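Summary of Year 1 activities. Much of the first year was spent building the evaluation harness for sequence design. The harness presents a backbone, in tokenized form, and records the residue chosen at every position. We chose the following record to illustrate the format because it has been used consistently in internal testing since the harness was completed.
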């Protein structure tokens, strides 16, 4: 990869060279991640790494602007990130801008809620919680009509 300009990744890409091994990454096959970050490699992130997860070199200090740098096979991510940090890859001059957004803090859904908090009402707290806040009221007439009980 050194010396050659890496192609510009478009949103509708189908086949692109891996930033780690240089072989083709096929969008419809295999596990791959898009790599976003700064051209200098001072901040890099790979999305997705596994279901709903990403990795970033400094998740607490997200830059105000970043670019879509390319793609890599999941197995090649360590090599791809090292290649970018070393500056061994030359990127296209007109890279796609990555849209970076910070998520609001949310109550973790893997922990039980308190008796005065509803996890589904986006932070609603109060003494007026009903059964519907925990178990939504369902129209069970169709269930009863089919002979099933609940």
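For this record, the design step produced the sequence shown next.
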């Amino acid at each position: 990869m050194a010396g050659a300009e890496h192609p510009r990744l478009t949103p509708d890409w189908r086949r692109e060279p891996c930033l780690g091994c240089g072989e083709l990454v096929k969008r419809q096959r295999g596990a791959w991640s898009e790599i976003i970050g700064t051209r200098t490699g001072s901040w890099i992130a790979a999305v997705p790494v596994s279901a709903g997860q990403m990795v970033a070199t400094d998740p607490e200090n997200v830059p105000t602007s970043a670019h879509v740098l390319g793609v890599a096979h999941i197995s090649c991510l360590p090599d791809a990130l090292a290649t970018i940090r070393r500056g061994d890859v030359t990127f296209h001059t007109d890279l796609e801008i990555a849209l970076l957004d910070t998520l609001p803090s949310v109550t973790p859904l893997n922990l039980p809620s308190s008796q005065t908090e509803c996890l589904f009402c986006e932070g609603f707290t109060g003494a007026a919680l009903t059964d519907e806040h925990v178990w939504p009221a369902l129209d069970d007439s169709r269930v009863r009509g089919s002979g099933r009980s609940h």
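DSSP finds three helices and nine strands in the chain. Quantitative recovery figures across the full test set are reported in Table 2.
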